[in-house]
Amino acid sequence: MAAAWCLLGATRLLTVVLPFGAVRRLLGEPVAPGGSGAPAPPGASARQVARARAVARVVGQAAGRTPWTSDCYPQALTARILLRGARVPHTVVFGLRRDDAGELRAHAWVTVGPAAGEPVTVTGGSTRAWTPVGAFSWQP
Fold first, then answer.
1. How many CB atoms lie within 10 A of CB 19?
2. Which of 11, 57, 67, 88 is spaced 20 to 30 Å from 110 by Cα?
3. β-strand 29-31 against 131-138: which pairing, if any?
């Protein structure tokens, strides 16, 4: 968890200091969002899905213990770094929606796709209310 905590700090700093264009190069290959939602993440083995679930637990626990804001964006970047280190194929997705006051809100999440079945959301919680506007995939 210490590594995730430190990565959350580093990625939070990146999101504050660098423009998205600079961070974008770290995200992987851009993929078009699907017509009805986020693109399907690249297929992953059962072992890789288990690793992704472990990353989800660690990032979630570390995010709850930071004295700085560790919202969806730094969590997604941290999960992306940890998943790449574990050689787990994944997709980072960015989405938008309007809240009750009509304000535009942004969200980021990471998914891992098992060979069969529903994708596993590593960070970002429930993503059904969000309209995907950009996605980046990585495969070993």
1. 8
2. 67
3. antiparallel
Give, in order, the Cα–Cα distances in Å from 45 to each of 94, 98, 119. Answer: 24, 36, 12
Q: For strand 104-114 and strand 120-123, is the pairing parallel, antiparallel, or unpaired?
A: antiparallel
What are the beta bridge partners of residue 111?
A: 91, 121
d(C-alpha 66, C-alpha 37), whole Å:
31
Q: Report the SS3 class of residue 125.
A: coil
Q: Full-prediction pTM beyond 0.85?
A: yes
**Strand, helix or coil at 97?**
strand
The residue assigned the tokens 């992306």 is: 80
pLDDT tens digits for 37-51?
667 788 899 999 999
Task: Give percent above pLDDT 70 in the chain.
Answer: 96
Q: In which residue are the tokens 């209310």 written? A: 129
pLDDT tens-digit map of 66-109:
999 999 999 999 999 999 999 999 999 999 999 999 999 999 99
